[in-house]
Amino acid sequence: MKKFKKVMAVGMSVALTVGSLTLTGFSANAAGLPTTEGHNKYVNSDVFSVIGSDTFGTQQLEKPLFDKTQGSHDISDLQIPVLAYDESSIGFVWQKPEKYDDVADYNVYINGVKAGTARQNFKENAKWTAKYMEAFYDYYDTASDVDMVDVDIHSYRATGLEADKEYTFKVVAVDKDGKELGTAKTITGKTTAKADVFNIVDFGAVATEGYTSYDDEKNAVIEKNTKAIQDAIDACTPGGKVVIPEAENGKVFVSGAVWLKSDMTLEVNGTLWASPNSDHFEIGFLMYPFYTDTRGWGLVNAMSADESAPVTNVRVTGNGKLYGNGWKYGAGGTMYEDGYTSNAGKNIAAGDPDVAGADSEYGLPRYMSGNNTKVYSYGVQAADSAIKYLKNVTDENGNKKYSDETVDALIGTTSGTGIDGDDLKNAYAT
């Protein structure tokens, strides 16, 4: 029997839009788990029967699951996703042709003029993803006998467009020599009107170093920033844009929880840094509807207290960072330096870009791996939240279960000494 290796690429769709995500057609069973309802709309159920069998991957298939050599070269389902457009860009996606064995890329035309190809556009508008994909494929080409199949890119983001203007886009498949295949498909889209801009600095936000601890002075700055950002959001007109600008000298905007509203864009060009003080994040978030324990809300939230009026039409865009400030820098149980110095690019894995050389700008940070007891040594805001939870645990008589001294003794340790296991678990869950 011929020995072979199997590699399965599962539906990767790269949405080069403007940072919005829409989920449609999703269903769940009584336990809250996804069901297969609706799958047949997109994939033949026979495929699931094959890949779900006990023998899949252990022997040769009788026939291919898909025949990419038959059918039309025409793309299908060309569409502009919900909110995939703003005043200067429009994103659109499509399905690959039935016959795609000779498809290498897609030509895109804007108002009748060739603008480029899907792969070129992907490298420009999804630089980090493109770089890591390139390194991944290079690694398997040189260091492994696994036969990888290059992911097809069937999305495009048209940028540099004029506000409040209609554009026509045409997409057609091409082979490796650039020859167009099949009949092109077209779609028309319109940019939004130029948005009103609400810069958080104009509302009083100030940039500082990133805080990993707090005192009264730092709390005052954080609370001032939180109010300034929320004021900017509240003042934002329908279709408007709240901007977090890039600060000078690596400074950031430290904030507590902020709440977006409908019909707005949050453009993050600088760094929005989460407060290390867990009191700046309201408690009340349920990770799943069937959970009974409540947790702190996030740094940026798009949720309404009125279930009949959910927050809608929200974009989060920009090239900046939302920094959660939950854990110290490290890898597994090994802390990097003092835990507060970024280790971006210091811990790399096989198939990563050359972050020690030509691709140094693409280094990613790694964080400590915490649990119920390690959080008190490895965490930042995570530790603060757990400590405060334990200090408020009461016994059956309503008295404090643990002294402040007992709880404070956990800081910097990984043992959980003196605390009941269930309380450690619940504290970690906050």
Summarize the structure in words.
The protein has helices spanning 45-51, 118-125, 127-143, 216-235, 375-378, 381-391, 404-408, 421-429, and strands spanning 76-79, 90-95, 105-110, 113-117, 155-158, 166-174, 180-190, 197-199, 240-244, 253-255, 258-259, 264-268, 271-274, 283-285, 295-296, 300-301, 314-317, 321-323, 330-331, 334-335. It has 430 residues and is of the alpha/beta class. A 4-stranded antiparallel beta sheet has the order 4-3-6-7. It has a 4-stranded parallel beta sheet with strand order 8-9-12-17, covered by helices on one side. The longest helix is centred in the middle third of the chain and has 20 residues, at 216-235.
Please tag this protein with its features.
single chain; 430 residues; alpha/beta; four-stranded antiparallel beta sheet; 8 helices
End-to-end separation in angstroms reads: 53 Å
- What series of H and E elements makes up the topology? HEEEEHHEEEEHEEEEEEEEEEEEHHHH
The helix content is: 10-25%
Tally the helices: what do you get?
Answer: 8
Main sheet specs: 4 strands, antiparallel
Strand order of the largest sheet: 4-3-6-7
Report low-confidence residues grouped into runs of 5 or more.
Answer: 1-36
Structural class: alpha/beta
Task: Count every beta strand, where a strand is a DSSP E run of 2 or more residues.
Answer: 20
Q: Which overall shape is indicated by the principal axes computed on the Cα atoms?
A: globular
